[in-house]
């Protein structure tokens, strides 16, 4: 009877995690239902003494719990209490997921299944995006204006032969098919490519299927036209080279040729796609990286640069130890922009940098704790040659440098779920999914 009960708890845990992963690109509400399921299952399971011992001795769980608690403390000196509590609430998974996964454990088989589920989910999501784009073209939708809005004429002037219908297959309009920002979808797909490379190295799936999937995701990434992808592709290529050096069983020359081929394919598609050509080259070439006061910015690169500038300027007026208060970052940067009479057509004061965002709201204490959540598993990952986990951390760091990545549920849930799925040691003797 006891064995059956353990088996049921295990199935409910895996079922809840699977639901969260499947829902992640599509619906955060459903994703949270999966978390509620595993939380209830965890409570019913009991074994409190053993769970407390496991959680209290795990340094990564402690970092996550301390960061969450510091956010709660930051509410006490916030200027916007309602928004502060909202910021605390949306990071509740920083406590729930670590404790449940570390004290419950996952078998290597289940880790593999969850990671493969994410690949399949993202694949289905991209197909829905393509289907939605075709549907919009058929009904002559004008949704493509989401891509550039007020600066649409600049794109057409730079690319006079460009068809508006093509915009449905790129950037915001393409990702809108499943209601996600293209940056988040890009990070998801790059992580999928890393997972597929791991399968190629471990020879757990058909290599022709894997190469086809990598090619497909590479094409979709070129269509998404996010600036972060170019840097992320370079990151993945570096990881592949490191894998080749570590794993002597793989022919280095062959692997190098394949890697160069995919880089060439991506860069060629980027140059051929008018949206990515405009965003990654034409727009940047016309950008002046000098912040002028009493100005309104419309160019996306200039907007981001001025927001970084305003964020860094706000940093100097923030309490260096405890910050301005949980949830006050946008308010503080908005005041800096008003003081210098700077605005943008998006009416945003988001610094587009998670580290600036965290420092302004919770100070050096909050920033150190967040970095602990991000970086503390690196030593173990490096020691065990788990390059898959290392690349995942590098991807989150990269995304956090160009976006307030952990202020959106699509970023929070992605980070927390996979940080711990990759981190916890499997408790069966099945082959571990890591780059050995």
The gist of it:
The chain is mostly helical.
**Structural class by sheet pairing and helices:** mainly alpha
How many strands in all? 2
Distance between the termini: 38 Å
Name the helicity range: over 70%
Beta content: under 5%
- Quaternary organization: single chain
Q: Evaluate the radius of gyration.
A: 22 Å
Largest sheet: 2 strands, parallel
Task: Catalogue the unreliable spans.
Answer: 428-436
Total helices: the number is 20
Please provide a written account of the structure.
With 436 residues, this protein is mainly α. Among the domains are: 1-46; 121-285, no CATH class. The protein has 20 helices and two strands. A two-stranded parallel ribbon has the order 1-2. Helix 1 (2-23) packs antiparallel against helix 2, helix 4 (59-74) packs antiparallel against helix 5 (81-89) and helix 7 packs across helix 10. The protein is globular.
Topology, pairings included?
Layout lengths: L1 H22 L4 H18 L2 H9 L2 H16 L6 H9 L3 H12 L3 H31 L13 H7 L12 H5 L6 H21 L4 H18 L3 H19 L5 H21 L1 H12 L9 E3 L2 H16 L13 H11 L2 E3 L9 H22 L2 H6 L3 H16 L6 H15 L13
Parallel strand pairs: 1-2
Helix pairs in contact: 1-2, 1-7, 2-6, 3-6, 4-5, 4-6, 4-17, 6-20, 7-10, 10-11, 10-12, 10-19, 11-13, 12-13, 12-19, 15-16, 15-17, 17-19, 19-20
Comma- or semicolon-separated keywords:
436 residues, mainly alpha, two-stranded parallel sheet, 20 helices, 2 strands, globular
